[in-house]
């Protein structure tokens, strides 16, 4: 015991005196859940660490995206500029052809109507003739038939 009392107190710690545990903050980088693979329970995939782009990389990507959108916009404007007049001309031409077809169709309907009118007149005169023939037959039948 003499050794303990004569020695420097900073070199020895008392067995009854404990230091409080130090607080350990959680890691800032989120790790992917580790999966246990069948047949290899001791091996885990490495944690995924995200890499934050620096401001120069972000600006370059922004410029690239801006130029891509501008080029696509110009291409679509050119495409629409070529397509719109062609579509308009095709529509006008089709409407003209459709108008010609409609006029021909109306002319044919008028001709059919005229033929139907003449057929009605012919049918009316045929019906009058049949009525005349029937009245003559009735007159003959009422006089009686002589058998020799």
How many extended strands?
0
Main sheet summary: none
Q: What is the strand content?
A: under 5%
How far do the termini sit from each other?
Answer: 180 Å
Shape assignment: elongated
* Element-level helix/strand string: HH
The protein's oligomeric status is: single chain
CA-based gyration radius: 55 Å
What's the average pLDDT? Answer: 77
Percent range for helical residues? 55-70%
Transmembrane segments: 67-86
Region (Disordered): 1-57
Keywords: Membrane, Transmembrane, Transmembrane helix
Biased composition (Polar residues): 1-21
Task: Please give a quick description of this structure.
Helices cover 64% and strands 0% of the residues. By secondary structure, the protein is an all-alpha fold. The chain crosses the membrane at residues 67-86.
Could you characterize the architecture of this molecule?
The protein has 2 helices and no strands. The model has no long low-confidence stretch (mean pLDDT 77). It is 64% helix and 0% strand. The radius of gyration is 55 Å and the shape is elongated. The termini are far apart. It has helices spanning 2-6, 55-143. By secondary structure, it is mainly α.
Walk me through the topology.
Blueprint: H1 2-6, H2 55-143
Keywords:
single chain, 148 residues, mainly alpha, 2 helices, 64% helix, 0% strand, transmembrane helix, transmembrane, membrane
């Amino acid at each position: 015991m003499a050794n303990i009392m004569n020695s420097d107190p900073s070199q020895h710690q008392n067995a009854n005196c404990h230091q409080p545990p130090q607080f350990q903050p959680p890691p800032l980088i989120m790790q992917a859940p580790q999966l246990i693979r069948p047949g290899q329970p001791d091996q885990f995939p490495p944690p995924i660490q995200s890499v934050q782009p620096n401001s120069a990389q972000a600006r370059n990507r922004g410029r690239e995206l801006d130029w891509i959108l501008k080029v696509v916009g110009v291409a679509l404007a050119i495409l629409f500029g070529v397509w719109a007049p062609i579509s308009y001309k095709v529509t006008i031409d089709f409407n003209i052809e459709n108008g010609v077809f409609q006029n021909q169709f109306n002319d044919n309907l008028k001709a059919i109507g005229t033929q139907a009118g003449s057929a009605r007149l012919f049918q009316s005169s045929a019906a009058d003739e049949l009525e005349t023939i029937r009245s003559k037959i009735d007159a003959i039948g009422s006089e009686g038939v002589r058998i020799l």
